[in-house]
Amino acid sequence: MNSLILKKKLDTTSNFSVIDIFEKAARKAGKILISDFGKIENFKIHSKEIGDFVTSVDIKVEKILLDTLQQFYPNASYITEESDEIKGEEETIIIDPIDGTSNFIHGIPFVGIVIGRVFKGEITDGVIFNPILDEFYWATKGAGAWCNNKKINVSNIDRIENCLIGNSIPHANRGYQNYLIEIDNIAKKCSGLRSTGAAAIDLALVASGKTDAFWQRNLKIWDISSGVLLVREAGGKVTQPSGDEWTIEKSDILVSNNFIHNQFLEELNSK
Ligand code: IPD
Ligand code: CA
Ligand code: CA
Questions:
Q1: Residue whose CA is at the smallest distance from ligand 1 atom 12
Q2: Binding site membership of 197 for ligand 1 (Cβ less than 6 Å)
Q3: Is the pLDDT of residue 111 over 60?
Q4: Which residue in 10, 116, 227, 257 has its CB near the most CB atoms, within 10 A?
């Protein structure tokens, strides 16, 4: 057993850690995603509303994830993007089969298979797997944040002027009051803005110190649960964009490397 495996906490009901089980499910599902990536003729696309798509690959990936995870956690509750909630015990597994579905459709390699575990309102374990780039991000509460076999940390830049900031310009009906003001406030102060089109990947970029902060509103729990844990375990800070505490039922989020958090809040909310 290598030191990496030792760092993962063993599940009480099996000899595997939660992360081992999530990895097994994500890698199995990842093969399906890879086999259809860039082959738009292979899958069906359905538009839920403007700019919100589901493909037959999302559905297939979600089924593989559920089938695999339910072998290990038959009594858990499941909250997934593409199926009805499965009500079970307090242990809850949260799934986004493809975060970045629009990217997937367009053959852009920023996609993530997201699986998180929530227990008593706390995110305890999370993975974000990008099978195209073969990046397996994972975090367990108290055991740090990792990408493949490497521990990851947030950046240590302490002036917003030197920061690269993640955000997503809201499209279709996702705009909200003041969104252009928020973007203008931050754009004027930082060294650049980035948007991957997959919130989970945006969060993984902050956790791995590639970008320095990220904010977005109106996200879903499956977009952000694993990424929040990654950022926290990598030494970053998570709040709402107002500065109030972030809890799992909140859909607006601001994460940073911690050093610039207060400065970021001030700039974001300045009139
Ligand atoms: C979307 C992505 C995107 C975010 C959207 C999400 P999906 O998830 O995370 O970055 O801006 O709000 O809905 O639909 O690709 O799973
Ligand atoms: Ca998503
Ligand atoms: Ca999705």
A1: 219
A2: yes
A3: yes
A4: 227
